[in-house]
Amino acid sequence: MVSHTVELLKSEIPLEQESVVLAEDAVNGLVLVDIINGFCTVGAGNLAPRESNRQISGMINEAARLARVFCEKKLPVMTFLDSHHPNKAEDPYPPHCIIGSDESNLVPALRWLENESNVTIRRKDCFDGYLASIEQDGSNVFVDWVKKNKITTLLVVGVCTDICVLDFVCSTMSAKNRGFLEPLENVVVYSRGCATFDIPLEVARNTKGTMTHPQEFMHHVGLYMAKERGAKIANEVLFGEAEKLHPSE
Fold it and tell me: φ and ψ at 100, to 5 degrees?
């Protein structure tokens, strides 16, 4: 039933994806959203997967692969880590990723990023990494990072496709359109480098306060809505000489 619904969804709101070539003569930036134990490591917390999940595992592999390439090329990388203060709720979700806990740390496959000079780590206490980058004096760490590095194309990966990734992309697109992020030109969301969680309907019905969240369905919706905001959705990311982003065959 779920697979039939997903296929129906994809036929009703088809999502055209692109093969994206990141030009070698431009500054490309990579943003990793919340690829941390509390969302990705089996049994690590209230919002962690209860068993191995192919979409999440694939996302980690693709994010790690791209991070290696960006670090080898000494290109700018920013990684957001969901990190909450105790007793400060983030409805509708239970306590998660408390500051100081291993839940709020990068997954093992990405822990090496902590030692890379081209990587900026930002802990955030809300869904939206753009808003979480605002300092008390009104400055924005993410905005300053884009401008300082003169980033023209931003590649986004992480979790959850339809929540923190989407919220960050929406705010970033609005800020770009307002002229706050010059010289940024393109925001690319890599579909295979993103993932979300799975709560089947029967589980939600039997768990008080839990909303159903079919993984493939919501992943597609998250990507679709990001494209509606003006982001480019990629099913392949390459480095090369191409100057433009082009649709795949």
Answer: 95, -15
